[in-house]
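Ticket closed. Logging final result for Fumarylacetoacetase-like C-terminal domain-containing protein.
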Amino acid sequence: MDTWMRFMSSDGGVVFGRVEGGYLHEYESLDQPVPTGAVLSTRALTPLAPCAPGKIVALWNNFHALAAKLDKPVPAHPLFLLKPAGSVIGSGEPIRRPLSYAGKIVYEGELGIVIGRRCRDASVEEAAESIFGYTLVNDVTAADLLNENPHFPQWCRAKGFDTFCCIGPSIVSGFDWHSARLVTMLDGVERQNYPLADMVFSPAEQVSLISQDLTLEPGDVIACGTSVGVGSIKDGATVTISIEGIGTLSNTLSAVCEIAL
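Final structure:
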């Protein structure tokens, strides 16, 4: 397995590459993984979200256990929404409560698929080859907005605020998800602990079926959906999401939305 990260350098530039032993071996980009020859100490770099997706495809009802709990039928095709690129933050960055919203904010710990090459109308085999690697996602939701308007469920608004898509800390290529478990902790208390093997659609099946609907580009992320144990985050609380072999994504809900002047 290889671990890939994205950083900001001291001069404000963005660098991407393979991390090993505290050093970043720089590569041209995620879609052009060609080494530049540069080797940088990660101590001199500021971590960012490991990719800059043009879009995040977020699945709903993709785990058998949650479908059973909600008494929902297992879907025949992935059920998904899109989160905007501007919602992405990395590990350690604060989730900002919107100034316009005082309601419940919810965490959802998820496996993230990172696309490595353009993918359209792909077979399952082609889709598997299009996966660059895997990361962690906290699909944050302003839960009270979902059904605020009885005539139109507001999935994109509720999940699309700035900072509402936490991704990181790294991308791991060659990761075997089949026997892995995802664990979500809220202020140190375990809230989710579920097997990834309980997915309705495997990662390759997700990529294949979603590529029938829209073109997936390098760097795009598919959030594979969550299982049981979703809950609310109080202001000041910290959510950590972990998968052994990928790492830990940690973000704290801030009560104040910082506005750039």
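The domain at 49-254 is CATH 3.90.850.10 (Fumarylacetoacetate hydrolase; domain 2). No further action required.
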